[in-house]
Amino acid sequence: MATTVDLDRIWQSVLGDIEISLSHGNFVTWFKNTSLLSLTDDSMTIGVPNIFSKSQLEKKYATLLHEVFERNNLPTSGITYKIHTPTTSPTVEKPVPEQPESVEAPRQSSLITAAPKSPLTHTYRRGINHDYTFESFVVGSGNELAYAACQAIAADPGTKYNPLFLYGGVGIGKTHLIQAVGNAVLAHKPNARVVYVTSEQFVQEFVDALRFKKNTDFAGFYRNADVLIIDDIQFIAGKEKIQEEFFHTFNALRQADKQIVLSSDKPPKDISALEDRLRSRFLWGMTIDMQNPDFETRCAILQMKAESRSFNLPSDVTEFLSTNVQTNIRELEGALNQLLAICEMRAVEPTLALAQSVIGGARTRPKHLSAKQIVEVCAKHFQISVTDILSPKRDKDIVRPRHLAMYLMRSELHLSFPKIAQELGRKDHTTAMHSVEKLEHAIQNDTEVREAYHAVREQLYA
Ligand code: ADP
Ligand code: MG
After folding, report:
1. pLDDT at 23
2. pLDDT per residue over 171-216, tens digit each?
3. 254 touches 260 (CB < 8 A)
4. DSSP letters of 295-321?
5. Is 266 helix (H, G, I), strand (E, B) or coil?
6. Is the Cβ–Cβ distance between 292 and 326 less than 8 Å?
7. How far from 212 is each of 71, 156, 226, 271, 336, CA to CA, in Å?
8. Which of 11, 57, 255, 358 has its CA 20 to 30 A from that of 391?
């Protein structure tokens, strides 16, 4: 039987899955105060805040839930919904609206007003990221023009470059910068109606609005924004109705001198299947190309990110990473995170040798590294058989290698817990969760385990 902590964790992962399939408004309205109350192999009890949620989940969201449960290896039948008011509720600031029919559209949800620090529901929350500010953005070649333009419009929205259109490859800071505009505007004017949305969300909300005959709400919401930020606008291409809708939104906002900020992976002229009238409007304001920053800027970014996590990054490490990870800032940050994670785990300072092993590992990581191989290498290292690892045996000298195999599947292959359980021929993924946790703890506290972990890992990458 799973513990409360397990149930919470499983449910968070389910919610994460649901959130990406729904508009933010619907997600908050119908799923915010739900929880998993119990779970067995073939049944599940879900806590819901009221009778409306219950009927909504049972009817409208049945198919979605079925899919999500299946994906998460949870039972798809034997599901009971129970009205349940959480005893300790960190999320009671705003009660869920109790109207069965109203599918509360995006309204307050993605409309960021006072920008409170407290997360709305849980960490999967979409919308403005408070860490994406101008202060946390390092300016250098490749992004300085974009930075200057963003600052200018944040200081005086709607008056200068309208729309501001930023484009460039992945991971170079487009989202960070356009969100910084939103954060800066809100810092000056907490009541400003700043709306940040990805174009996929925009499309989804529009589709929902049509389905539930809330088009006027949808239009009203977007046309009333003071600053409308749409990320990755290229995805509206080829969608006729949404382009039409956006065309009107665009005109309304421009006419009222409201700021529009757009990002895309390519310039307007290269977005195929984009209506000409939109293409020409995208060019009305300012179009800026963002490039991967140069070496020095990359070093500065690394230094800043390390400092924000209270690490001191020696210059040889910084230079090494900047030289060797040139693709984009997201990957650079990824390499840094990997390095710092190892440092935290082993309680050591970042060094060049460690950085080399991280990058080296990432580079030479055999593409074919599989769960099966992990089990084989673990078995070999501990001189037991693969069958033993996969067996239900509970002997200590079998349990350890089994846990290590699970841990490596998680850390190296990023497999989900249900998948890990499956790889080991087990049904219950909460056991996999526990095992991985146990091993993580052991790596930190038990030298023998730590050594085994490094040895096996080295063999995997040899
Ligand atoms: P894009 O939207 O262009 O794909 P993001 O804005 O998501 O890229 O940036 C990827 C990551 O890199 C983010 O974590 C972001 O904070 C970081 N990043 C990019 N450029 C900079 C910069 N100049 N200073 C600080 N962080 C940056
Ligand atoms: Mg982005």
Report:
1. 63
2. 999 999 999 999 999 999 988 999 999 898 899 888 888 888 888 8
3. yes
4. HHHHHHHHHHHHHHTT----HHHHHHH
5. coil
6. yes
7. 27, 37, 26, 30, 45
8. 11
Ligand 1, pocket residues at CB < 6 Å: 137-138, 143, 170-176, 293, 301, 329-330, 333
- 208, two tokens: 């929902």
pTM: 0.57
d(CA 232, CA 215): 22
Which residues are near ligand 2, the ion (C-beta closer than 5 Å)? Answer: 174-175
CA 307 to CA 309: how far, in whole Å?
Answer: 5
Instruction: List the structure tokens of 48.
Output: 């819901």
Ligand 1 atom at minimum distance from 172 CA: 3
Asked if residue 375 lies in contact with residue 390, where contact means CB atoms within 8 angstroms, the answer is yes
Distance in angstroms (rounded) separating the CA atoms of residues 15 and 26: 12
Cα–Cα distances (Å) from 256 to 164, 224, 228, 292, in that order, read 16, 9, 12, 35
- Which strands form 227-231's sheet, in the order they lie side by side? 111-112, 194-198, 227-231, 259-264, 164-167, 286-289
From the CA of 136, how far away is ligand 1's center (Å)? 10
Atom of ligand 1 nearest to the CA of 293: 23
Nearest-atom index, ligand 1, CA of 179? 6
